[in-house]
Amino acid sequence: YTYSCSAKYRTNLEGTPLNPTFAISIEKYPIEVENYRMKTSITAETFAEAAAHAVGDIGDMVMTLTADEMALEIDRMALYEIMHAVEPLYNSDWSIDASVYTEFQYRQPKPEYFRNLLLEIEKAAMAIFTRTRVAAGNVVVMNPIVAAYLESTGLLQVQKSLQERQINRVIPLGWIQEKYRVLVDPFFPMEKILVGYKGEGVENAGYIFAPYVPSVPLNTGVLKDITIDDVTFHYAIMSFFGRKMLDAGFYHVININGQLY
To answer: Which residue, 122, 130, 135, is CA-closest to 199?
Structure first.
């Protein structure tokens, strides 16, 4: 399957300043649909133990856990594809040293030092506007440890309660200066920060992610493993989605040089 979408435009100012002319070109990109499959196996003994402890329908629980894990893997697949495409092209450095901390026994980050990191994020956001002529960056992705430093210095306003912070997920955590929405991922590199712009449509998007079918159960049934003398239940799901990097200029990578802890 392929999709066609309007992806990018360029402006060219000509004529007098009072009467400029705009040359806008529309480009189409094919987006191929991919399929992703995940399988979970569980033994008959586990089924029996779950029934004994009144866990509930173990099959539904396994399918739900597998579907959640698949959604998480697909999200990270898109996130890291953006990182690898952008980093060689658009990046900057922010260095950290011992002066970032106080002299107490337990090192505390200095708020004034981390304001320099906010300045670096602001510079990256404005670089996105310079390249795209659409808008400045408005989304920041980072490791939860980096977010914790910004939160402890009062520079990050967290809007997720402790109960809502699922440690294994990519979650929107809060805002920086009410301008940058902060997403955290525990597997995101601690020495990297991804700044990007998220628009409202394909005409101002740098990356297209199109979920087609969230998850479809596959009827694998009960299979007997010939190498093990027991019965194993196999659960599998399949998802369809499309993804395409359109313009890496909508993103910027900040490299953190030095140790945060």
So the answer is: 135
Nearest residue to 109 via CA among 172, 156, 179 = 156
Q: Are strands 91-95 and 156-158 parallel, antiparallel or unpaired?
A: unpaired
The 10 Å CB-count burial string (b at 16+, else e) for 217-255 is eeeeeeeeeeeeeeeebebbbebbbbbbbbbbbbbbbbe
Contact predicate 251/199, CB 8 Å: no
**pLDDT one-digit tens code per residue, 158-177:** 886 555 666 667 888 889 98
Q: Could you identify the residue written with the tokens 């993804």?
A: 243
Q: Tell me which residue has tokens 């979970």.
A: 40
44-66 confidence digits (pLDDT tens): 777 777 767 766 677 777 777 77
Confidence of residue 249 (pLDDT cuts 50, 70, 90): very high
Of 83, 149, 78, 74, the closest CA to residue 111 belongs to 149
Contact 201, 231 (CB under 8 A): no
Assigned token pair, 56: 């509930």
Quickly count: other Cβ atoms within 10 Å of residue 214's Cβ: 13
Residue with tokens 């929107």: 172
If you count DSSP H runs as helices and E runs as strands, how many of each does the chain have, helices first? 4, 12
Whether the full predicted model's pTM is greater than 0.85, yes or no, is: no
